[in-house]
Each structure stands twice: as structure tokens, then as C-alpha cells.
Design goal:
30% strand; alpha/beta; two-stranded antiparallel ribbon; 11 helices; 9 strands; binds S-adenosylmethionine; Rossmann fold; single chain; seven-stranded mixed beta sheet; 38% helix
């Protein structure tokens, strides 16, 4: 079972909440119907092409969306995840093209120098010990190999309406998303060289009024930010959004819900010798 914990306010008291990926596995891929994030696939394919990598590992592979996207003849794809539920969904998708393993990022069950490319998409912030994962990635990579870490940059409060309406979500993200500078330090400390970072995808959406209620990202089970807050905090946020929409409709002054998020790729190389 893969469970991520987080703290949130409930009735004036801090309480511990969990994201249980086994429970949300069946619904997880709905996010890709709503937002296919094609630039992530393109960025990974460009790196893979440059490296000519034949053995590739995705850590925190979830439902196998990116494993399926990157599958190619003469390329061996491997996926590792801590959630059996997510892996079962992945199995149905990539059974013939990828080898899946149940395990933890902090303790990769592979021999040293097993892969030419290791990548992580939207998962690093879930790992309990991110630095330990980075040294594990360094260990399982071959000389000349590379690690790509793809995910959201630490967000600004005004960038996402979710932070404005759902108490605790901003604090949760601030605590779990490492800055580019911190990641660069961790990668260098683990022995990686030539650490590059670039924005590969920008989400810039505005939903006006009632349209926000169709956003898949305000469903509690679709978004880890919302899965990590209490039911009470979640329901309060939904009530606030409905009230803002009702006010806008009553006054004729439209209300806009913004999502301005950047997805960054950090690419770090293992020295040849
Ligand atoms: C947001 S999902 C991303 C899945 C996939 N990479 C994608 O982009 O669709 C995060 C995944 O990380 C996995 N995960 C969380 N902690 C983990 C750990 N310590 N080791 C391995 N996987 C972990 C979860 O089970 C989940 O499948």
C-alpha cells in the first residue's frame, strides 16, 4: 500500500491525513483525459533519443501512463511503484511492454548500473526521503546515464485557485515541493554532474463561474492536495466556491478561477568515469 501523510486543520486541531493511492488508482487516469500534458512526453522522448538509452526505469510509475508513452522497440522499460493498486492499473496498460516492480523509491531493488535513464514524473514530492531516492537513482544508473525529475515548481499562493479556497493546501505544497536550487544541491551532493533545469510545460487556465465545478482537479480523490486535507476542510472549500459562483451570478460580476502552474524538468548526468 502507498500512503502519503500530511497535516491539516480539523475543527481547530492539527490532524494527520493520508493519500492512499490504492484507493484512487481506478480514477487516477481521468487527469490525463482532462489535461494530457503532452509536453512531458515530448521532453522525455527528446532526452531518451539523446542518450540512446535501452534500459529505462520510471520510479513512482503509478498507472503506467508514461511507460506506455515511451515504449519502443529495442527499449526495455521498467516501472516501480509503492502502490499495488496503481501497479494493477499499469499492468493492464503496459503488460507486454514494461516490467513492473512493487517497491519503494528509497530502496530500489535493482543492481548498481542497471539503467541508462531513470525518470520521475509528479512523484518526487510523495517520496518520504527524497535525498535517499536521489542517491539510489545514482547507484542504479550506468556511467554516462541520466536522471530526469519532472514536477511542479514550488507554487505561489496566487497561482492556483485551489490554494485560495481550500485551507491547508498551500502549506502542504510548500512543505513538500523542493525548489530547483535545493534539488540541484541534492543532485550534486549525490555525485551527479551537468544539472540542467527548464520549464517544459505551462498550465495557464481560467475557468469562469460555474465551469469551475467541472474541473477534475477539484475532486478530492483526483488531486493529492485535496486528498491530504480533512473532509471538513474539503467541504468548506467546496462551499466557498459555490458561494463565490452564486454571488457572481446574483451580481452579474463574473468570478474567475485561475490555474497558473509550471512543470519543470531537472536533468542530471552520471559522469562517464
Ligand atoms: C502522482 S502519482 C504519479 C504517477 C505517474 N508518475 C504519473 O505521472 O502519472 C505518484 C506515485 O508515486 C507513488 N509513490 C509514492 N511514494 C512512493 C515511494 N516512496 N516509492 C515509490 N513510489 C511511490 C504513488 O504510489 C503514486 O503512484
Amino acid at each position: 500500500m502507498s500512503v502519503e501523510t500530511g497535516w491539516s486543520m480539523n475543527g481547530g486541531r492539527m490532524q494527520l491525513y493520508r493519500v492512499n493511492y490504492d484507493e484512487i488508482a481506478a480514477e487516477y487516469d481521468r487527469r490525463y483525459q482532462a489535461s494530457p500534458m503532452k509536453p512531458v512526453g515530448s521532453a522525455l522522448k527528446t532526452v531518451l533519443g539523446g542518450l540512446g538509452a535501452a534500459r529505462v526505469l520510471e520510479v513512482g510509475c503509478g498507472t503506467g501512463h508514461w511507460l506506455a508513452e515511451l515504449a519502443a522497440p529495442r527499449r526495455e522499460m521498467f516501472g516501480l511503484d509503492a502502490s499495488m493498486g496503481m501497479l494493477r492499473t499499469a499492468q493492464a496498460k503496459v503488460a507486454s511492454s514494461a516490467c513492473l516492480t512493487h517497491g519503494r523509491a528509497e530502496n530500489l531493488p535493482f543492481r548498481a548500473a542497471s539503467f541508462e535513464f531513470v525518470y520521475v514524473v509528479n512523484a518526487l514530492h510523495h517520496f518520504e526521503d527524497r535525498q535517499r531516492f536521489i542517491s539510489e537513482a545514482r547507484r542504479v544508473l550506468t556511467p554516462g546515464g541520466a536522471l530526469a525529475i519532472i514536477g511542479m515548481t514550488p507554487p505561489r499562493r496566487e497561482d492556483w485557485y485551489v490554494y485560495e479556497y481550500f485551507d491547508g493546501t498551500y502549506e502542504i505544497d510548500t512543505a513538500r515541493f523542493a525548489s530547483r536550487e535545493t534539488l540541484r544541491e541534492w543532485l550534486t551532493a549525490a555525485g551527479f554532474v551537468r544539472v540542467e533545469s527548464r520549464v517544459i510545460h505551462e498550465i495557464n487556465e481560467e475557468r469562469v463561474g460555474r465551469a469551475v465545478l467541472d474541473d477534475v482537479f477539484i475532486e478530492k480523490r483526483s488531486t493529492s492536495q485535496l486528498a491530504l486535507i480533512s473532509d471538513e476542510a474539503y467541504q468548506t472549500g467546496i462551499r466557498r466556491i459555490r458561494a463565490a459562483v452564486a454571488r457572481a451570478e446574483a451580481t452579474g460580476r463574473p468570478v474567475t478561477f485561475r490555474s497558473r502552474l509550471q512543470i519543470v524538468m531537472l536533468l542530471a548526468h552520471v559522469p562517464m568515469y
